[in-house]
Amino acid sequence: MVMHEPPRHIEWVGDAATGHLRLLDQTRLPAEIVWLDCRNVESVRRAIHRLSVRGAPAIGIAAAYGCVLGAQQRDAVAGFEAAAAHLATSRPTAVNLFQAIDRMKRCAAGVGDDAALPRRLLEEAQAIHEEDRAACRAIGEHALALLRELTDDRLALLTHCNAGALATGGIGTATAPMYLAAEQHLPISVFADETRPLLQGSRLTAWELAQAGIDVSIITDSAAATVMNQKCIAAVITGADRIAANGDVANKIGTYGLAVLARHHGLPFVVAAPTTTIDLNCACGEKIPIEHRAAEEITQGFGRATAPPGAAAFAPAFDVTPADLITAIVTERGVIRPVTAAALAAQFDSC
Ligand code: MRU
Predict the structure, then answer these.
(1) Together in a domain, 240 and 96
(2) Do residues 64 and 173 share a domain?
(3) Is residue 22 in a domain?
(4) Checking CA distances to 65, which of 33, 47, 98, 309 falls within 20 to 30 Å?
(5) Which residues contact 218 (CB under 8 A, 6 or more apart)?
(6) Residues with a known catalytic role
(7) Ligand 1: does its nearest atom lie under 6 Å from the Cβ of 205?
(8) Would you say residue 6 has pLDDT above 80?
(9) CA-closest residue to ligand 1 atom 8
(10) Which residues pair with 320 in a beta bridge?
C-alpha cells in the first residue's frame, strides 16, 4: 500500500531564534507555485487574512508559527504577547486559530527563561502541526469506515470548499477518507463544488485530489441539487471551521444549503473535523462569529468586474448547518452519531 504524501505547504525554515515561516501561497494555485517567506508577525497575519494560508487547522498552525516570530524580538515575552494579540485579529470564525494561540500562551507561561522562549514556542508549534497531521489520518480511518457503512461501499462523494491537505497539517479532514480509499485501491469518485466566490473547491480540492490520482469532477455550486437528484453521489462530506457545543457547524458558505439538499434527497451528510475545531464554550450556531468578506471578492473576483460598478454585495464567508441536518461528525477520536450536545460532550469526557 502506497501512503499518499500530501503537499508540505507550511514549513518552518531555520532555527527558532532567526528562522522564518514558509507558506505555499494558495491564492496563486493552481496556476502557479509561489512560496511566501514570512519573516515577521504582520506578514503571517496578512497571509491568513488574504487566504494565502486558509482552512481551519492550517490557520491555527500558521498562527502558532507566527507566535515564534513574535518571540524573536529583543524582548521575547512582549514580542510574543503582541504577536498573539495581533494574529487573533486575522479571521474570526475558525476556532482552531484561537485554540492554537491559547495553547502557545499556556506554553509561554510555563517558560521561566526568556532566552529559551523562541525555542520552546517553536517546539510547541511543531507539536501542534504534528498532532494535526496525526489527527487527519485518524479522522480518515473513522470516516472511511463510516462512509462504507452508510453508502454500501459506493464511495461517490460530494464535498464543498477545501477541507483537504492544503487546509491542514496532514491529509485533510473531508478528504482524508478519499486519500485512504485511494491508498487501499477502493473505487472512489468525488464531485467538488467549485465554491463561490473564491473557488477553493476547483482551485484547491480538485488540484490536490487530481495530483493523488483520485477521480474528481468539478461542479458549479448550483449543480449540487441535480447531482443528488440524478443519484451521482452517495454521501456529502465537508469540513468545519467551528462546531458549537450543541453540534451546529459553521463551514464555508453553501454548506448549509448542501445539508438541506442532502436531507431532501435522503443522503447522509457527514462533517469531518479535528477536536480542535470543537468549541464547547460556544453554546450553539447562533453564537459563532461569522466572517464577512469584502464585496469585491464577489463583484470583482480575481480582478475582473462581474457586477456593475458600485454594486453592493452580501458576503458572509461561512454559514451554520444545524445539528439535526448532520448525520455524523467524525473527529480523530471517533464518530459522533447522532449529533447531540450529550454525544459531543461524551467524546471529550472519554479522554
Ligand atoms: O475561507 P476558507 O478557505 O478558510 O474556508 C475553509 C473551509 O470552509 C473549510 O471547509 C474548513 O476550514 C475546514 S478545513 C479542514
Answers:
(1) no
(2) no
(3) yes
(4) 33
(5) 191, 192, 194, 201, 202, 206
(6) 241
(7) no
(8) no
(9) 252
(10) 250
